[in-house]
Amino acid sequence: xxxxxxxxxxxxxxxxxxxxxxxxxxxxxxxxxxxxxxxxxxxxxxxxxxxxxxxxxxxxxxxxxxxxxxxxxxxxxxxxxxxxxxxxxxxxxxxxxxxxxxxxxxxxxxxxxxxxxxx
Length: 119
Prior knowledge:
By secondary structure, the protein is α/β, with parallel strands linked by helices. It is 38% helix and 12% strand. The chain contains 5 helices and 3 strands; from the N terminus they run βαβααβαα. Strands 1-2-3 form a 3-stranded parallel β-sheet, with helices on both faces.
């Protein structure tokens, strides 16, 4: 079974590296990371976490000698919540207009059809 970290992230993508560190300390293996966020959140994640030069995710991997190929995580693993018209939302406050179904639809689209369990 694959261990997938699914996170809903706003404008503070460091929660991903902090979570990875906590799981690493517990010797929990992560095979893939999927993030649900807004359009603005995706921009922050791409700039601060996934930047190949100085992204915090790559610094974390380097610091703990983790092979980047061992975790499926990249730009395609960042999923944007969309409104009823299929437009990416800019702010999580707009989710109140879109409703919870948009969040669950986004979550369902990024996870394989398998048993999901909590960490």
